[in-house]
Amino acid sequence: MKYTRWIIWMCVFVPLFAVGQSGTEPKKELDELRLKLNESGSHYIKATILNQVWLRYNDSNPGTTVLGDPTNETFDIGLRRTRLQLYGQITDRVFFYLQFGQNNFNYLAGQNATNSGNRKFQVFFHDALGEYRVFKDNDKLHLGAGLTITNGLSRFSQPSIGTIMSMDVPVFAQATVDQTDEFSRKLSVYARGQIGKLDYRVVLSDPFPITSNGTGITTANGINATNASFAFDKHSKQYQAMLIWNFFDKESHVTPYMTGTYLGKKKVLNVEAGIISQNNATWTGTSVTDPDRKYYDMKLWSVALFYDAPVNIEKGTAINAYLGYFNTDYGKGYLRYNGIMNPANGTTVAASPAGSFGNAFPMFGTGSVIYAQFGYLLKKDLLGETHGTLMPYVTYQSSNYERLDKQMTVYDVGVNWFLKGHSSKLTLDYQLRPTYTPVGNALIQDAGMKGQLVLQYQFFF
Fold it and tell me: For a surface tag, which of 29, 63, 217, 411 has the fewest beta carbons within 10 Å of its beta carbon?
């Protein structure tokens, strides 16, 4: 009996006593998963977790089918991105970065592309790189190598997806995504750094062959007599570079990823310019044995202005704005449809371009693109101390591609509800996109447009 009383005292009264002794200094809430490797914390290992869940209604493109059934509209639930990251500064000069996860996982997982029927093939390493800081006490020069998203072209070619201002990034800026790369990552060696107000990155990449991208490309369908597609042979390296001038605050150089919005924590005004170049990247011809087949160099470049800054520090209001021009030369007549986490997998439209069903539109092509976005962060605690604030936004993509009969414009309008900054947020987004009818080698824009409504919940820690 006496042991019972001792056990009750130890389990109940001792914890209560300990709570009472804590007084007015409760233990500080952790804001990151970070393990210090030295006393100062300059050497560390950090882990992050991200998940983006989509609930979506889509008005389907003409002729869309799902598992063979004609479908005018779809509703689906999916995981846009699920990621685990582990990175750290393990000595004064040595940094590593690993990222593991999956993308675009909805009810059709395993039914798109080659129709493998296996929904478990989605998870893979996104990044695995090592980096050496040449100058111990500054960021003037980092040398790195491995599987990495470090790219040229633009900030949206290497976006920090946990800090996106809009619901999603402008994917056309990830120019070869899942064609000759692994979800925009390539095996590369690079140099990056900051010299004064200048950020730079120079990259040499070894692209993957188009035949290993998982869509079942064969010698029968891998070349077109009229329009360029990625070539099977004449493998060549890819050269990339990007320069950014920081007028105000410098951006972080911890990882190669570039922040979407700082939510008023920084004052950033940047001018950027970037390029990607690869010899003999694409081809045209009657067949892979055609002695007269023609090869084309891929030449992509962009210039842009990025602004992300507080408006009223006391109120917590801020602006995010971006305006960019992209010149995209993939070769004669190159055009690629893409539908983000496409909720459909077939079409009944004859001679329709590959992947033009569901929510897809001509995302990549030889021509030019203007992309702009604007968001306004409303005052902090707008909805109450524990309910956060809102950030409405608009985005605009206008593409002038060779094979389209007129300028293509895609609009998004939405609002972020920041429950706890980027760590916990809801985003509601409505997108309008054009549809096209194939006529010979051209695509003629239809009179109407199709819409997509998405509710996303993100947690990021």
Answer: 29
Count: domains in the chain: 1
Q: Is residue 30 part of a domain?
A: no
Tell me whether residue 10 is in a domain.
no
Contacts of 213-218 with C-beta under 8 Å, sequence gap 24+, read 213/178, 213/179, 213/180, 214/113, 214/114, 214/178, 215/113, 215/114, 216/113, 216/114
More confident residue, 17 or 290: 290
Beta bridge partners of 59: 73
DSSP notation for 335-386:
EEEE-TT-S--EE--TTPPTT-STT-EEEEESEEEEEEEEEEEPPTTTT-TT
Q: How confident is the model at residue 1 (pLDDT cuts 50, 70, 90)?
A: very low
Cα-flanking dihedrals φ and ψ of residue 189, to 5°? -120, 145
DSSP codes, 228-253: -EE-SSS---EEEEEEEEESSSPPP-
**Cβ atoms within 10 A of the Cβ of 218, count?**
9
- Report the helix count and the strand count for the chain, using DSSP H and E: 2, 23
Per-residue pLDDT tens digits for 143-177: 999 999 999 999 999 999 999 999 999 999 999 99
Backbone angles phi, psi at 12, to 5 degrees: -110, -55
Report how far residue 387's alpha carbon sits from residue 421's, in angstroms, rounded to the nearest whole number: 11
Residue 310: beta bridge partners? 318
pTM to 2 decimal places: 0.92
- Taking the CA atoms of residue 379, residue 385, residue 387 and residue 389 in that order, the dihedral angle to the nearest 10 degrees is 10
Q: Dump the DSSP string for 191-217.
A: EEEEETTEEEEEEEEEPPPGGGSSS--
Whether 147 and 236 have beta carbons less than 8 Å apart is answered as no
Give Cα 394 distance to the centre of its chain.
17
Residue 40 lies in a domain: no
Rg over alpha carbons for the chain, rounded to the nearest Å, is 25
